[in-house]
Description:
- The structure holds two protein chains of two kinds.
- By secondary structure, chain A is α/β, with parallel strands linked by helices.
- Chain A has a domain at 248-331.
- Chain A is built from nine helices and 13 strands.
- In chain A, the strands form two sheets. Chain A has an eight-stranded mixed beta sheet with strand order 7-8-9-3-10-11-13-12, with helices on both faces. In chain A, strands 1, 2, 4, 5 and 6 form a five-stranded antiparallel beta sheet that branches.
- In chain A, helix 4 packs across helix 6 (161-172).
- Chain A is globular, with a radius of gyration of 21 Å.
- Chain B is an all-alpha fold.
- Helix content of chain B is 77%, strand content 0%.
- Chain B has helices at residues 2-29, 34-39, 46-55, 62-74, 88-123, 128-142, 145-159, 182-188, 194-233, 235-242, 247-284, 290-299, 303-331, 334-342.
- Chain A binds chain B through residues 54, 56, 84-85, 87-89, 92-93, 95, 97, 100-106, 114-115, 117, 155-158, 168, 171-172, 174-175, and chain B through 234-236, 238-245, 249, 253-254, 257-258, 261, 331-334, 337.
Amino acid sequence: MTILDIRNLTIELETDNGPVRVLDRFNLQLAEGEIHTLIGESGSGKSLLAKAILGFINPRWKITADRLWWRHYDLLALNNAQRRIVTGRDMAMIFQDPSTYLDPNDKVGAQLRETIPAGELTGIYLKRRADRQTRAERLLHRVGIKDTKEVMESYPHELSEGLAQKVSIAMAIAHNPKLLIADEPTTAMEPNTRAQIYRLLAKLSAGQGMSILMITQDLTAVVPESQRISLIYCGQLMESGPTEQVMQSPLHPYTDAMLSMSLFNQNAGPKTRLPTLSGAIPTLQHMPIGCRLGPRCPYARRACVIQPPLEKRQQQQYACHYPLWEDSGHD
Amino acid sequence: MIRYTLRRLTLLIVTLWLLTVFLFSLNYFFPGDPLTNMTGIRASNTLSYQLAAEARGFDASIISQYINFVGHFVRGDWGQSLTTQRDVFTDLIPLLGGTLELSLLAMILAMVIGAPLGLYAAGQQRGSMDRLAMGVSLSAYSIPVFWLAQLLILLFAVKLRWTPISGQINPLFDIDVYSGSIIVDILISDNPYKQAALLDAINHLWLPVIVLAIMPATMLMRITRNSMLEVLQQNYIRAARARGLTETRILLRHVLPNAMQPVVRQLGLMFSILMSNIIITEVIFNWPGLGSWLVKSIYERDYPVMQGGLFAFAALILLVNVLVELFHAWRYPQVRKELYAER
């Protein structure tokens, strides 16, 4: 069942040089209990998307969408207060540098305790307090922290980044959210810790049917548990589909380029250069019209100045006039 | 924390020691006889002079003179005044009380005015009230305290006649001086007109307190506003909102404590500024405190009193600074980490 349905989401920022479209007719469908990985380079608008879903909206952004539905709520129709209730109840987010998301002058235990929803506690004051404590400990156990006492008595600066991320995951899952958005949760972490965090997230998703929108920079960070991936370039959705299928047979030149750029590329001979797209990511003020990959795309033709519609082929969605399959006219 | 406390206390002791070296050397730089400068006993008073010279090791080397100086100093023998022949240390205690009373009240008033106004300005960020508050605070901050004091006296004491021009209390109330703090002294006295005396004392007190409080209040206001705005931008505040905590709870538990951190850090500095203002204010309001005493001693070339006053002021500022730093480190633990990281 689709719980998050985004159709043609557009975000425009007001700047001195007129509006800038940072997210251009973006589409995303997320099913219950699914892990969906969103891949995009920095500045591609992926964090903005997360903010738009959660409702951290700056009044200077202009957000339009054909659909921005969370379960049966039309998020764009809700006012701020209603939206915060829905978001606070159903969604949670973890971030890139977790320790800055913890209050530096408050003990970790106290911060963890206060995230436990008061509605789930019963009894009088002292019992509620004890209840909070045991629940907080249980949360820490669930994210794989064994010496709960020590962690709860620590201040955030005394935790490693990995531990801090585990604590923020514990906080995020305190109210059993239906959707967890993980915005590059493991950047700047050691590979070992990184693997731990990913395993933990996959376990949580499988265990309680929590959907996870994982936001990362490159294809190497896609975890095996991720059912679907989407690639976003300069605010436009390039390709989306089941992980295996997209990796095996990419339809969009961008996906293809990303794959051959990545270290998965088995075809590259020893001591050869990894192929890269020519040119650089355009700045926000100078976005090309039509398909924004156009100027860098090796297959671009005249038609590419018109933005290609999103098309579907065997569960794979792509936005390209000249997709990469046998009878598509490529050489 | 224990380690941090010890380090701060060591620093305090070392600084106080350097201060005694400085005071000791002053006696030799001041014009006149070093022993007279030190003890306040003139050479014409032959017998006492000889006794003092013996007791303070003036027949031996300068090192032993210094050791004797510190010995007397620690025992509370700070010499006697050259003009009144009264013991400096016994005179100093009630004056210290008077100064502390004035400075503490001014600090409290500054906090009561400054911090809430800063919070309010932060709430109205870049609004007209914010601009107005910041503009007023900048102008108030730039007014020199001696001028402000005289203006306010002119207005409230001379024109409006709401308050006496100077002094601590009407001398008709015969209040015995114990602590020097007029309010404390009235409360512990058995004067039959206690209430009237208290009212009169407060009537004398409020104007100098306001004069003193204005500068720290404007500083507090600006610091509070800026740090408040900074904290509101922090990730952990946004994350707390995303977790669905109530706005009141976020404000009380996460915004305010963190926003107060720079304020606490600056309290020591503010107290130092307050101390230099209090000297002027005490002279203008003829307030019996350390400041007016020190200024008078300078006019009269009363060297033993000057030393005592200097030491009292310096020690007070140092002590308050160390206490503020200790409180800061105790309340905001990540400060301690910064210090350890430097090792």
